[in-house]
Amino acid sequence: MVSKTPELDIYGLTDEGLVREHNEDYISWAPESGLVILADGMGGHNAGEVASELAVTSICEALNEVLSPEIKDSCGMDFKEVVHEAVVYANDEINQHAKEHPECSGMGTTIVMALFHNNSVILASVGDSRIYRFRKGELKQVTIDHSLVQEMVDNGYMSEEEALNSNNRNLITRALGIAEDVKVDVTEHETEKNDIYLLCSDGLSDMIDDELIFSTLVKSRQDLKRASEDLVELAKAHGGHDNVSVILVACK
């Protein structure tokens, strides 16, 4: 069976926000291979931006050969396993870099990524950056936050409303680069024509709620550039306390 990369429209944007002195987010996409990645770095002495860039470049490096037409078109490829191994490789590379550069000790990064092929998309996530899907007038978060607050909600110790107002929203329970081993959520979903996937850092989702994200996509879903710019500006208008990054992917 031949694996076909679907036709995609992609636009992404990253911004320092209004408080941070530099941007530790890193985004990348390759329409020809159907690969989209967003990372939100953390760590002192600008090491967060090292971790996020290293995560993205490592994943691209790991997938580069696999996603070549000659290999990708071969039968029997387990795309979920390929994506999982690429994220694990990125974790190894960040850990190794920190060992070799003491000034980067303690750095880490979230990651969300999407690999589109045929009529499917493989989603991977570590941390609290998010992926949403906008389909037929409905917005749905299709990744799970790896955060202390989300765990408390899942275990019944906190309501969704309390979680929205919690001071601990930014305490994450998973990230690349903070341990030798990393647990990666990898899922596969069928895509439909006119689907829009939104990858974002918590600089967006912490500043504006899902209802505002939804209304922005309803208004500007035919213009991904405008929708991306509107989302970033809304995050800044609501405080802009963090770097904010978005990537929008429309399935044609």
Report what the structure shows.
Helix 1 (47-64) packs across helix 3 (79-100) and helix 7 (210-220) packs antiparallel against helix 8 (224-237). By secondary structure, this protein is an alpha+beta fold. It has helices at residues 47-64, 69-72, 79-100, 148-154, 160-164, 202-205, 210-220, 224-237; strands at 8-15, 25-30, 35-42, 108-117, 120-126, 130-135, 138-141, 185-190, 196-200, 244-251. A hairpin with a 2-residue loop joins strand 6 (130-135) and strand 7. The chain is globular and about 50 Å long. The chain is 34% helix and 27% strand.
Short description:
The chain is an alpha+beta fold and 252 residues long.
Mean pLDDT: 91
Question: Which strand order spans the largest sheet, edge to edge or round the barrel?
Answer: 1-10-9-6-7
Structural class call reads alpha+beta
Task: Please name the CATH architecture.
Answer: 4-Layer Sandwich
Q: In CATH, what is the class?
A: Alpha Beta
Number of strands: 10
Strand residue percentage: 25-35%
State the helicity in percent bands.
Answer: 25-40%
Number of separate structural domains? 1
